[in-house]
Design a protein that fits this description.
heterodimer; A: 100 residues; mainly alpha; 0% strand; flat; B: 239 residues; Four Helix Bundle (Hemerythrin (Met), subunit A); 7 helices; elongated
Chain lengths: 100, 239
């Protein structure tokens, strides 16, 4: 499949429209205060947008499974980076002080 | 090597100028290139990841200062620039599509449109930066200076004392993250221009347009970084 998978241009326009709408949504939701959930909502919209770009603009949906493995590994290592950093910082006194 | 297979390889080589001799066929060559590009992007995720981790640590410690810093940024400008960048991803996707169906002139046109939209984004970024940097220059007063350092104007953010210092951390991350993102776009523009030049010279076809696809992957990745930066920097807390 050296040509790759050719998707109709209408798919790209639909994804573009969805991305524009979601950008509007991410701004509109700041008009409401969900408390600690503000960050969750903002990141939820951003992850949705990023998924659309990866799946359709970057053709991940039509790519070999190996591509999916690399994408999954990339997300997993990013999660390890942020998660382990936070478990460390959030379990220490702040500001950081030198012992002794 | 059996004679038949050798003939087949020789034929394949004779058939396409873009096929490098260490690949069996164009399909294998394209998949190898795509895998390499995706691994590069995975590395880029972790390259930006350190900055996102730092952001998570400091935003958790100083939510008020981050909120004050974020409210000082213009969400309208960030919103408009987000649409510009998404538009450039659309034109990039259409350039790859045009290459896949063999429309040479459209490939060139869509890549030039991508460069134009990318330049608009960088131009807006220039004006955003200069509004924060210009007041820091000269002898002062430095009202409105938002570059972390001795001239940083915490009063412009309605912050006092230690909170002013915490807001400097926000702006350090703002300049670091948006700056690294902008650097990626600045690197992307001459690559796009090169690909447009090669497309105009007729180097790509439905069978072989891997370079157009690969620069497309890079450009879309840079778009994704901004999709996260926009809410994290411009839209903290309720407006």
């Amino acid at each position: 499949m050296s040509r790759g998978h050719v998707v109709s241009w209408k798919v790209y326009l639909a994804v573009f429209a969805a991305l524009c709408v979601l950008t509007g949504v991410t701004v509109l939701v700041t008009g409401f205060d969900f408390g600690p959930l503000n960050l969750v909502v903002a990141l939820g919209v951003a992850v949705t947008k990023a998924s659309l770009v990866v799946l359709y603009f970057m053709h991940a949906r039509y790519s070999p499974r190996l591509t999916g493995v690399v994408i999954a590994a990339s997300i997993a290592f990013f999660a390890i980076l942020v998660f382990l950093t936070l478990t460390d910082y959030l379990s220490r006194p702040w500001p950081l002080t030198v012992a002794g | 090597m059996p004679e038949v297979a050798a003939d087949a390889v020789a034929e394949e080589h004779a058939h396409h100028h873009a096929l490098q001799h260490h690949f069996v066929d164009l399909s294998q060559q394209r998949e190898a290139a795509a895998l390499g590009m995706w691994v590069f992007i995975a590395q880029e995720v972790l390259f930006f990841g350190g900055l996102f981790a730092a952001y998570a640590v400091y935003r958790n410690q100083y939510p008020e200062a981050f909120s004050a810093g974020s409210h000082h940024l213009s969400w309208r400008v960030g919103f408009a620039n987000t649409l510009v960048l998404i538009g450039s991803s659309l034109t990039m996707a259409l350039a790859v599509y045009s290459a896949a169906i063999g429309k040479k002139n459209r490939v060139v046109g869509f890549i030039l449109a991508t460069i134009l939209l990318g330049s608009v984004f960088l131009g807006v970024k220039y004006f955003e930066y200069s509004g924060k940097i210009a007041p820091c220059l000269g002898d002062g007063p430095h009202a409105g200076c938002l570059v972390p350092g001795e001239h940083f104007d915490a009063a412009a953010l309605h912050l006092e004392g230690a909170a002013g210092g915490h807001a400097q951390i926000f702006f350090s991350l703002y300049f670091g993250m948006t700056g690294l993102h902008a650097l990626h776009m600045i690197i992307g523009v001459p690559i796009l221009a090169t690909i447009a030049f090669l497309a105009a010279r007729g180097r790509f076809s439905p069978e072989y347009h891997t370079p157009v696809e690969m620069v497309g992957l890079y450009w879309h990745f840079v778009d994704i970084i901004w999709i996260f930066l926009f809410p994290l920097l411009y839209l903290i807390g309720a407006h």
